[in-house]
Design goal:
about 400 residues; alpha/beta; Alpha-Beta Plaits; Rossmann fold; 3 domains; 7-stranded mixed β-sheet; 17 helices; about 45% helix; binds S-adenosylmethionine; S-adenosyl-L-methionine; 16S rRNA (Cytosine967-C5)-methyltransferase; RNA binding; RNA methyltransferase activity; MeTrfase_RsmB-F_NOP2_cat
Length: about 400
């Protein structure tokens, strides 16, 4: 496909997404219906679609319209790229620019702050209350693609050896300062899942801040029995097992989410016991709670536009419930860790404060916050100790 045809495909997909379709699913359906498109074409179209979704508000503003065409046009204009080279009307290219499109005002000229920062109006003050002066740079970082990070399986190999193994398969990477197990993939990231290092469980795909959050918990759980109460796909459970936790149990209210976990654990060469009804007496319980995902909006840009005040309120209620359900499972003297990939204090520090206010016998012993300015996703973890 030509670059112009890729833009035309992205415009069609964006039209469906703006009508309410889910981007990932729409891209998959498009690939199935257009078998002639190679993997390079599909990847380029996906990049266009996700770039536009990350910058949806500013692109709509610059393109002066909420259609796939206007959003794509706005994206190119606000990046300072000349749309005429792509909107040629030749072959499968988008139709040439109309006189009206050519006469559009300068991109983002007098756009309000939430438009420039690509965020919903009501979310901006809440982020400002949480992040202060870092708000604008953090939101700006969320307008760009996220790096691809790998977690080196420390139980099986070293970061240097994994890096060499990947290099032999043409995958370039560099150690990332956020965490001793993190490699940032700098070249040929699309080869990772087919690589021997990945297949053999030497590396896993995992955000660097997510790895750093587990590393912050490890000093409290080395050799201990840890329950990952919201295990989902098991990313944290696997990192805990590889990092030296004694025994790792995994639980999730939605057990289907853990279906890949046994295979992932086998690949990593570690043991994770999936439990439907966790019992008490745990040395430590990790609650990696469902959240707005605001720290990961680079990866899931649709979530940035879907969040409502009502949904956020529901999430904080679920977060409180999870802390109330999980905390009695910790033995006296044990640890309760609470983590989210949210940048909003109402999902982070405020939840810990509310928990400490309504319960007795807990002390906060550690807290760490990461934002995309540290390189990875936004992340929060607090570790509480239960009195003896
Ligand atoms: C942020 S995700 C977990 C991600 C996972 N820990 C990882 O590292 O890949 C949150 C998970 O919490 C689960 N969850 C939601 N409510 C829950 C509850 N009341 N009890 C246990 N798990 C819950 C969801 O099903 C979801 O899988």
């Amino acid at each position: 496909m030509t670059p112009e045809a890729r833009v035309a495909a992205a415009i069609d997909i964006l039209d469906a997404v703006l009508d309410g379709a889910v981007a990932e699913q729409t891209l998959t359906n498009w690939g199935r219906a257009h078998r002639f498109a190679g993997s390079g074409d599909r990847a380029a179209i996906r990049d266009h679609v996700f770039d536009a979704l990350r910058r949806l508000r500013s692109s709509e503003w610059s393109g002066q319209g909420r259609t796939g065409r206007r959003v794509m046009l706005g994206l190119l204009r606000s990046r300072g790229e000349d749309p005429d080279g792509l909107f040629t009307g030749i072959g499968h290219a988008p139709a040439p620019l109309t006189d009206e499109e050519r006469a559009l005002p300068p991109p983002l000229g007098d756009a309000p702050e939430p438009v420039r920062l690509d965020v919903q109006d009501w979310v901006l003050p809440r982020l400002q209350a949480s992040l202060g002066d870092a708000t604008a740079p953090v939101l700006d970082a969320l307008r760009d693609r996220a790096p691809v990070f790998l977690r080196v399986n420390a139980a099986r190999t070293s970061r240097e050896a994994a890096q060499s193994d990947l290099a032999r398969e043409g995958i370039e990477s560099r150690p990332h300062p956020l965490c001793g197990t993190a490699l940032e993939v700098t070249g040929h990231a699309r080869r990772v899942q087919a690589s021997a290092a990945y297949r053999d469980g030497l590396v896993e795909l995992q955000d660097a801040a997510s790895q750093a959050a587990v590393a912050a918990l490890l000093p409290y759980v080395t050799g201990a029995t840890v329950l990952d109460y919201c295990a989902g796909g098991g990313g944290k459970a696997l990192a805990l097992a590889a990092g030296g936790a004694g025994r790792v149990l995994a639980h999730d209210v939605n057990s289907g989410r853990m279906s890949d976990l046994p295979a992932r654990a086998e690949r990593a060469g570690c043991r994770i016991d999936v439990v439907a009804r966790p019992k008490g007496g745990m040395d430590a319980v990790l609650c990696d709670a469902p959240c707005s995902g605001s720290g990961a909006w680079r990866r899931q840009p649709e979530a940035k536009w879907r969040l409502t005040p009502h949904a956020l309120e529901d999430l904080t209620r679920i977060q409180d419930t999870i802390l109330d359900e999980a905390s009695p499972l910790v033995r006296p003297g044990g640890y309760l860790a609470y983590a989210t990939c949210s940048l909003l204090d109402e999902e982070n520090g405020a939840r810990i404060q509310a928990f400490l206010t309504r319960t007795t016998g807990w002390t906060e012993v550690a807290r760490q916050v990461w934002t995309p300015l540290d390189g990875g996703d936004g992340f929060f973890i607090a570790v509480l100790r239960r009195a003896e």
